[in-house]
Amino acid sequence: MGDHTGTRKFRRVLLKLSGEALREPGSTDNISPPIVEDIAAQIKAAHQTGLEIAVVVGGGNFWRGVSASNKGMERATADYMGMLATVMNSLALQSMLEAMDVPTRVQSAIEMKNVAEPFIRRVAMRHLELGRVVIFAAGTGNPFFSTDTTAALRASEIGADCVFKATKVDGIYCSDPNKNPDAVRYDNISFHDCLTQQLKVMDATAFSLCMENNMPIIVFSMNEDDNIRRALVGEPMGTLVNATGQVG
Predict the structure, then answer these.
(1) DSSP 66
(2) pTM beyond cutoff 0.85
């Protein structure tokens, strides 16, 4: 099951990256070009298998709206600033992908014609059909919504087969593996079981969107070499969350 014809076979996917994923741990850089280059190389390798790939990047390496609002800043303004941070990350990833000859478009939910296209659903879908990677920037364009919610929303809008959520852990556990050494990792789990066991997969709004639209989520670790490529081409890894809790 190590190739892209394995049990998890997708035609169009959405990859969700955190902003921190673009920063080398311990670095003072907000964006570390070697890290972005590695991520872009993995996306390119998956893209070359014929997979249609959309990407949503967070902005936490520059700015966290919730943290700022907890320190007294108005939440809406803090969130808009976070959305602008995602645009910088999206442009960095686009630049690296295009340097590798992967045609890439950034679509921003906040209009800024000089740096990105506006988000237009049908145009985004056409880009994907033509073999372009599409990066969705500026969140949903609305405050109070996370970039996880953006990923769930855009994946549903473009008819993606799955959301791949790259994290620091290698899947979903029955309890916190950092606190409980006996915590068991799930290979597959249903939306319903995630709710009843109160497992934190995404924030509630993002998770609800995926559940209502029957959008599978794969939570996997991006800490190991080549994991993004391996996950995207269908190698079983991390945890698959879907309606049935079963693969297929």
Answers:
(1) H
(2) yes
Structural contact between residues 1 and 68, judged by C-beta atoms closer than 8 angstroms: no
Q: What b-and-e string marks burial along 175-209, b requiring 16 or more CB atoms within 10 Å of the CB?
A: eeeeeeeeeeebebbbbeebeeeebebbeeebbeb
Closest by alpha carbon to 58, among 34, 14, 106, 90?
90
Distance of alpha carbon 6 from alpha carbon 117, whole angstroms: 35
> For 228-239, how does the pLDDT look when each residue is reduced to its tens digit (9 = 90+)?
999 999 999 999
Q: pLDDT (tens digit, 9 = 90+) per residue, 185-217?
A: 999 999 999 999 999 899 999 999 999 999 999
Q: Rg (Cα) of the chain, in Å, rounded? A: 17
**Is the CB of residue 111 less than 8 Å from the CB of residue 138?**
no
**What share of the chain has pLDDT > 70, as a percent?**
96
Which phi and psi angles does 27 have, rounded to 5°? Answer: -80, 150
Write out the E strands in the chain: 12-17, 52-57, 104-108, 117-118, 133-137, 162-167, 172-173, 185-186, 188-190, 217-221, 239-242
pLDDT at position 6 over 70: no
pLDDT digits (tens, 9 = 90+) for 152-190: 999 999 999 999 999 999 999 999 888 999 999 999 999
Read off the tokens for 19: 């902003």
CA neighbor of 133 nearest in space, from 158, 104, 94: 104
Let me know: does 80 contact 148? Beta carbons within 8 Å: no
